[in-house]
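Encode chain A's predicted structure.
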Amino acid sequence: MGIDKKTFGIIKKVCGGIVVCCMFGLLVKINAEEITKDRLFEQKQAALAAGNLAAENTGTAAGDVGTNEAAAASGQSSAGTGENTEGGAGDASSGSVTAAENESEADGSVEAAAENGSISGENETEASGNEASGKAELSESAAAEAAEVLAKYASCTYFKNFTMSTMDGGTFGTDNLLDYKITVVNAWGPYCPSCLAEMPALENISNRYKDKGLQIVGLYSDYTTDDDDDRELAAEKAEATGVTYPILLGNEMYDLSAREMLNNALPGTWILDSSGNVLDFQASGKSEAGWEELFLKWLDYAEKH
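Encoded structure for chain A:
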């Protein structure tokens, strides 16, 4: 069966169209694959860029904690390479804003520190004022206490200007009080057991506190003549007690203002300040602890007055 030209022409056109369609389809497929590859590449680049941006932002955050140098470097790097221009500009802007915020915070910290310093200065001034006020009140209180103490024994003026011989041949007087805060004058007699019993305790206290302003001297009150035998007896008694502090001879004593305080009773103990004022008088003996407590009280008083 033969094919005429017309039919052959139609078949040729149809086949040609089919070939064209196949070629077009192949081109579309190839183009789609290329587009897909390009998109995948772009996505990969975008992912890498996002990773770099995250790293840069991390550096920026670390820089914000210190001096913001990482933020400034990140902005400069993005602008210099030309990659991610828009992102780099954003980072640089963010770094600038962060730096400005940190600078503002620093200014605020400086202002706060200055304010705290001002408050601290005010507090110190107030504390100084309170301390000065406290000292003034203490001074007034001390003056009142001193006036009361001195008034009690104001009638005894003997020790304010006296000179007596000592058992070792020397002299002792008002001038010997000046280098001590308090001086204890302990009157005793060779036939007074309680007198002799407390003298070793007074020796111990003298050794402990001599360098702290406490001076102790003994007064042999029964010695009223120039009898050498009497002096030798007193020396033996004193040596037996172990005392090394000076022993005054009572025959050169004293006006009635001092002797009347003894009232013919022993032992008797005066506590004097450095001017010879009588701060206290004890008409009986004490234990070592009792004397120490009393002397420390008057040492403290003398330091404050």
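Residues 57-100 have pLDDT under 50 and may be disordered.
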